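Late entry, written up from scratch paper. The run itself happened at the end of the previous shift, but nothing got recorded in the book at the time, so transcribing now.
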Amino acid sequence: MSNRIRVALSGSGFRLGAHLGALQAIVDAGFDVVELAGTSGGSIVASMFAGGMKLADMHELCMQMDWSPMMRFSPWAVVRHQSLCTGTALQAFLEQSTRGKTFADTAIDLKVIAADLLTEREFLFSRQTTPNVPIAVAARASASIPIVFPPVACSGALLVDGGTCDNVPASDLTVDDVPRVGIYLVSDDTPLRPGNYGLSTLAPRIIDLMLAANEAAHVELDTKNGATIVRVSTGYASSFDRNMPAAVRQRLYDDGYSAAKTALETVCVMGYPPA
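Output as recorded:
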């Protein structure tokens, strides 16, 4: 019997707490995370964890963090990068949170998914493909929402948000006898009544619409290939809410924990109980 597990974290925007809750449930169940794959917001959580930050510290940070500086509008960014924000604050945060580690430095096999505008294909950061690239650079690239952040030039590619090609990257996990779990934050938003709405309301919905078909196809294939996909309903929280109320952050964490805990009971039944 093995207590090892491979985990993929979907795009999440600022709903990062759900991923933290899921990871805490996995650790509390006695599993050892040996591989992590992340897309967009999920790549930020995966990179911080692989970089050595403790889950308790990540939880405290997530409960208190004001993400507004990460998405502060900059006229300079519009002129220089044709984007709304420079991405500089996000890069600095990621560098500090991951302690400057490269993919070769991480004990956990980390994989970060971005999308290459030059080839119009998925780009995979990993220990095997990009060993000397700082994981902060990879997470910054994976979270580069088009128009909001400028693309990241790295390793001969021009990279944007990984959610545009694979928002639930369970397919990038190694396939062997170790169980694979994908944490999928579902944007099951309540329908809006007809009316006039601002960009802050419509932007997350536009992104969700663009990702919907992509997500469904990947999740179906991953499930057929033996991965357990854990769906966490998060429609009550906006992926663009940079300073969401503490109660909403805690609810995301609790829902992620509960959904993962329930799914892990099924994984154990399938023959993978903690040692």
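The mean pLDDT is 87.
(Scratch paper discarded after transcription.)
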